[in-house]
Amino acid sequence: MSNSIFIVMLRRPRKDDPRTDPFWEFGSFGCTGCHGKNLLHPKNCQIGNGDRLAFVQGGQLGARLLLVTPPVKRFDHAGGSPKGRVELRWDSGRKPFRYDCAPSLFESPAPGRAGLFPRLTDSLAHTNRSTIDAKLASRFRARTSPLESELARELESGFSAVVKRAKESDFIVRYEEALPWCDCPSSASDRRRDYQQKLQELKNPAGVAPRKTRRCK
Question: Does residue 36 form part of some domain?
């Protein structure tokens, strides 16, 4: 096991499209095909058993670190696309922060104090973009390799320190609480149904149509 950390840049959901993946409730990411052209490309994915994911969500409050997962287990599915699909799973007991409570990657916690991740900030200094959030996205949106070891240690230690100080209410209860906004909340039963349906589809090799499932209206 390499125990590397890979940054996952989660897209900003539209208000009429809240996005379903990651399935935080089940400790799963990738079964919808998200990041299938870069980080989770079936043939080129560098993530293996024992590695970890650092989920970063952009939004009106800037880039926030929602979760550094426990070690993941990799599942290579035959179905889902002509080339298959990579799904990563971890202990679902580890929940992400609410977006509004998650640690900021770049903002200082108080005037005169440094941010939690100064090495990461410094590493982006020469990226040719106008804002720090744009620099981060440019560097990591399509990146498939793990963080450098020094940056990985900083990310892990900073996140762990925030978790230790956090209140129970700082973590999500419902999926949409991890989003910057959401006008389309889903019930727990809807989410479970959607995840089980995705898993069923992934059991089918390319070219074999999945069984139809009834959708709630």
Answer: yes
Reduced to 3 states (helix: H, G, I; strand: E, B; else coil), residue 46 is coil
Cα–Cα distance between 160 and 204 in angstroms, integer? 39
- Closest Cα to residue 213, out of 79, 26, 189, 201? 201
Asked whether residue 158 is domain-assigned, the answer is: yes
Task: Locate 14 and state its tokens.
Answer: 């539209």
The answer to whether 61 and 181 have CB atoms below 8 angstroms apart is no
CB atoms within 10 A of CB 125: 8
52 domain-assigned: yes
Helix (H) or strand (E) holding 156: helix 149-165
User: In whole angstroms, how far apart are CA 209 and each of 36, 157, 193?
Assistant: 20, 45, 19
Contact between 61 and 106 under an 8 Å Cβ cutoff? The reply is: no
pLDDT in tens, 164-215: 999 999 999 999 899 988 666 778 888 999 999 999 988 876 545 544 433 3
Looking at the 3D structure of the chain, how many domains does it have? 1
* Span 45-99, pLDDT tens digits: 999 999 999 999 998 899 999 999 999 999 999 877 778 899 999 999 999 999 9
pTM of the entire predicted model: 0.88
- The DSSP output letter for 114 is -
Residue with token string 């209860």: 173
Asked if residue 212 is part of any domain, the answer here is no
Q: What residues make up the domain containing 137?
A: 5-202
